[in-house]
Amino acid sequence: MRRNVGMVMTVALACCLSAGCSSQSSKGDSVKLQGSGASFPAPLYYKWFKDYKAGNKNISVDYQSVGSGAGVKNFIDGTVDFGASDAAMNAKEIAQVDKGVVLLPMTAGTIVLAYNLEGVKDLKLSRDAYAGIFLGKVTKWNDEAIKKTNPGVNLPDKNINVIVRSDSSGTTYVFTKHLSAINKDFAQSPGTNKLPSWPVGTKSKGNEGVTGSLSKTPGSIGYIEYSFSKNLSVAALENKAGEFVKASTASAQSALDAVEMPTDLVAWLPDPDGKESYPIVTYTWLCCYKKYEKKKADALKDVINYCLTKGQESSEALGYVPLSDKVVAKVQEAAKQITAEDAKKASLPVEGRYSLLRTPVVAGAEAAPHVRRLESAH
To answer: Against a cut of 0.85, is the pTM above it?
Structure first.
């Protein structure tokens, strides 16, 4: 009888939410989900989980931005309910998890080169220039590699202060994967890695730390997720087609359109095709177990479905790229692998609960004050 009542409440939820009421019975048992990992999607995850909590009083999600490497380690060790990583998980890591692993892309975003250079607002960097900077070969702001793509710009004869990540980072993994794809020297050393041995650079922890170092260090440049660059200048980067492109919803989506999402939902775009494509774009993943105790399985699947539907409306305003309907459908299907440890206790389906509430993303939505909105391409 109790299960039947719960099912009726779930069916009635869409109407209840549209009226602004809580979606969970005040008499129900509370569930707390603990997650940790990537700083790349952290601003969006914080908003999603806060907004979800507002309509689901008995379910709370605590997310710690500790970096992809630490998040995956915590997930493997079983100290969290889910991890988060911009580098997904490799086969060796997955093999260490007895309960099985489901990797779910939740959003996408761009990695930008933000800089602090007085009087220079519209910097253009060629592939040779920015690869050279992070190889320690381009060391002055008025180096010929930078001057030739910025005619008429007064570039100072000052050292370039490079800022890199100190922690095991999915953002670093994606950035070094791109640099390895466009530069043979970089591919040989330091190569693609979450924690490479950089030949140059001052180290800071997390996207937050790099952003803070850039803000305080004149003549600096570093790689961060776009949403963290609100108060910084961002360079236009040369893409595979030879065009200089800034990060925007349109340029990121152009890159994402160039790759088909595979069955394991791990798609990489190290150097995307397309004249309008921004060159450094990535998905970012939740790392979930396949087996949970029933209350947590139901709660986690409901949170995931909220993020994939209603939550996608927040993505663009916070500097991320909403998933396409096609990708959302694939992720919802994959999330069905999350089940209760006791197979006799059926868990809730992942799709459908919020589908009627999803509306088109409004590009002009007000962004949170601490993050940057993706700009429309002109």
So the answer is: no
